[in-house]
Amino acid sequence: MMQQVIVIGGGVVGLASAWWLLEAGYRVTLLERAAQVGSGTSYGNGGQLSYRYVAPLADAGVPLKALRWLFQEHGPLRFKPQFDAQQWRWLAAFLARCRADANRATTAKLLELGELSRQGMAQLDGIVSPDEFDWRDAGKLVVYRTPAAFAAAAAKAGAGEVWSAAECAAREPALAAVQHELAGGIYNGGEAVADCHAFCVALAARIRHHPRFLGFVHADVQRIVTGLRPGTVSELATSAGPIAADAYVLAAGMRSRALALDAGIDLPLYPLKGYSLTAPIRRDDVAPAISVTDFERKVLYARIGNKLRVAAMVDLVGNDLRLDARRLAGLTRQVRATMPRAADYGDITPWAGLRPATPSSAPIVGATPYDNLWLNVGHGPLGFTFACGTARLVADLMQGKAPSFSLDGLTLR
């Protein structure tokens, strides 16, 4: 008899997990507390599928940069100290990872995961039409404002095409207003942009009609129940009553930490609050055709369909989803100054989300101390990018298949 699996979480990671498990032969139930899938962190994210630009946040020199950012009124980082042991433990672990060797090792691993994810998204091409979620092979341009940062990026092996400031503005006219402020840019083809929420909705529709799918349950998981049988999860206590299966996959974003802790598993996750702005593109606007990242300001620009999506900032403020008017105003001013004619900034839709991040920036996939509980968590700002890759890994691991590359740095250990 085919095993029944419950996937906890209806964001892009949970949905991808459900699809790959269905294709692997499992019967799947997907449990999501919101009324609609993809309505949490997956809803208004940056939309970039950056398979090659996977730079971990922790790196040599980042602590000093972070100190400078804290004193900038509209800097990319905001830190609100709290009486929260997890915040301080996460920060200590993050600072310990701020080494060049640790960054190189994590980057190498994430590049392998990025390639697996790119292949996974390509596998879905015949399942979900790219038009359904505005997928576009836009390429990615990272622009640098300081010569030192630009030179360091250009010197890295396999960095990509090195463009001067003039070439950046010529090949991406949306940057014309800031050409004089740029030192140059690094371009990589093969990177894409898409609407993550629309992808979630489209994939959920395919999942719903899969012959092995048992249904969506819209309920809040209150507790992972263990102890009835040694080394196993017995059931889930939910707002709709107890639900049981043969196996469970935890893919519930930041909610995963509290649920895992109830089961005695301490996940090293902390919410990195990010903001996005979405504005309609008018006929005469000069919106970016290429996906653009402003390296020093940590601002991302992506044209998704007929809208401009701008994502930015890392706020370490706990589980606070409120829209900070000052942060949004500062971001809007930066966007207007960088791409003044890219969209209708008088009609902006703001959004904020909590990105569940590990200190290393690498997600956690695979087994737990319970033989029927599996993890797919901690993707940080790259949930959309890595969702297909980690879903495939979890499905393979649950079947006892060896992954195509070493998972050192990607597991609970």
What does the model show?
The protein is built from ten helices and 20 strands. It has 413 residues and is an alpha/beta fold. It has a domain at 64-101 and 132-190 and 270-357: D-Amino Acid Oxidase, Chain A, domain 2. The strands form four sheets. Strands 4, 5, 6, 7, 14, 15, 16, 17 and 18 form a nine-stranded mixed β-sheet that branches. Helix 1 (12-23) packs parallel to helix 7 and helix 1 (12-23) runs parallel beside helix 10. 47% of the residues are buried. The model has no long low-confidence stretch (mean pLDDT 95).
Features of the shown structure:
globular; 413 residues; 6-stranded mixed sheet; 20 strands; 10 helices; D-Amino Acid Oxidase, Chain A, domain 2; 9-stranded mixed sheet; alpha/beta
CATH superfamily caption of the domain at 64-101 and 132-190 and 270-357 = D-Amino Acid Oxidase, subunit A, domain 2
Give the proportion of residues in helices.
Answer: 25-40%
Note poorly predicted spans: none
Q: Strand fraction band? A: 25-35%
Give the C-level CATH assignment of the domain at 64-101 and 132-190 and 270-357: Alpha Beta
CATH architecture of the domain at 64-101 and 132-190 and 270-357: 2-Layer Sandwich
Mean pLDDT: 95
| Approximate shape | globular
Order of helices and strands: EHEEHEHHEHEHEEHEEEEEHEEEEHEEEH
Family: Belongs to the DadA oxidoreductase family.
GO molecular function: D-amino-acid dehydrogenase activity
Organism: Massilia forsythiae
Keywords: Oxidoreductase
Topology, pairings included?
Layout: E1 4-8, H1 12-23, E2 27-31, E3 48-49, H2 62-70, E4 77-79, H3 85-96, H4 100-123, E5 140-144, H5 147-155, E6 161-164, H6 165-171, E7 184-188, E8 192-193, H7 196-208, E9 213-217, E10 221-226, E11 233-238, E12 241-243, E13 247-250, H8 255-262, E14 270-280, E15 291-294, E16 299-304, E17 307-316, H9 325-338, E18 349-357, E19 364-367, E20 373-377, H10 383-398
Parallel strand pairs: 1-2, 1-13, 2-9, 4-17, 5-15, 13-20
Antiparallel strand pairs: 3-8, 5-7, 6-7, 10-11, 11-12, 14-17, 14-18, 15-16, 16-17, 19-20
